[in-house]
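wait is this the right file?? whatever heres the structure
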């Protein structure tokens, strides 16, 4: 399928403007958005992706933002645009927190932002469940282990920084695989003033209560969740390196 594209003149016209001003259609807002795209040096919006707005493909649609593929010069990026009906006034906090966690190698790199848009690394991502189905044969346990280890380590870094992602209980949507490694997405609900629970929430989803847990336990050969739950409870209390290493050891990741 050929992808549809629109430059900054065309993108303010029907049907393209609907993506910029979703869920309403507003010429006025389209103008504001285009000024923001220009500020970020976006030259073209590429309507590609599995999600549709009308007949146009987008990379993703959440409750806060619409994510589209864009071209800046010769390179392609993902641009998150605030929805007109989002329950927040701007994307400033999200841009700030994402840039902060970028410093420890977490999240898609932010290259620039405006009040209502964040320009970031484009991920050709796969859901962890789909990725897991694709790892087969010799070495598959090792690959699954590496992925989980890397994901938990990212969560551990967030815990240490004092950043709570806030939506890892819905991990399926907020942790994906791209370029052979895990990525934590969407820091719109992240907070720095509450106790972080990234490791415990992610591990709970992956091995105990989440939709992926049975497949993940099988992939890593984890049988006993009672011990894991106890170890996570202990980790939660002091969040020490020692307690974290006990969790990894139990999952045979250490
Ligand atoms: N950097 C990116 N590259 C590719 N797709 C992305 C990127 N960031 C987000 N997406 C897609 O867009 C969807 C919605 O983004 P998200 O940040 O979760 O928005 P919301 O805050 O509205 O929930 C994600 O689930 C994902 O599929
Ligand atoms: Mg989201």
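ok assuming it is, sequence goes like this
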């Amino acid at each position: 399928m050929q992808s549809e594209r629109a430059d900054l003149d065309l993108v303010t016209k029907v049907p393209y403007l609907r993506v910029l001003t979703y869920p309403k259609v507003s010429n006025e807002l389209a103008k504001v958005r285009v000024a923001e795209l220009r500020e970020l040096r976006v030259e073209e919006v590429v309507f590609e992706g599995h999600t549709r707005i009308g007949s146009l493909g987008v990379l993703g649609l959440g409750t806060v933002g619409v994510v589209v593929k864009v071209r800046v010069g010769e390179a392609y990026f993902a641009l998150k645009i605030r929805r007109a009906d989002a329950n927040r006034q701007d994307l400033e906090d999200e841009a700030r927190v994402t840039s902060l966690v970028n410093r420890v190698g977490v999240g898609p790199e932010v290259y620039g932002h405006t009040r209502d848009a964040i320009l970031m690394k484009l991920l050709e991502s796969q859901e962890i469940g789909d990725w897991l189905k694709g790892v087969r044969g010799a070495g598959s346990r090792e690959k699954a282990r590496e992925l989980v280890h890397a994901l938990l380590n990212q969560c551990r870094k967030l815990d240490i920084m004092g950043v709570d992602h806030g939506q890892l209980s819905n991990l399926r949507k907020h942790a994906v695989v791209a370029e052979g490694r895990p990525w934590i997405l969407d820091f719109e609900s992240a907070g720095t003033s509450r106790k972080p629970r990234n490791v415990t929430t992610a591990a709970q989803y992956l091995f105990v209560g989440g939709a992926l847990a049975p497949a993940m336990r099988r992939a890593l050969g984890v049988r006993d969740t009672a011990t894991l739950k106890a170890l996570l409870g202990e980790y939660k209390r002091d969040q020490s390196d020692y307690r974290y290493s006990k969790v990894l050891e139990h999952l045979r990741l250490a």
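The chain is about 40% helix and 20% strand. so i think its the right one actually
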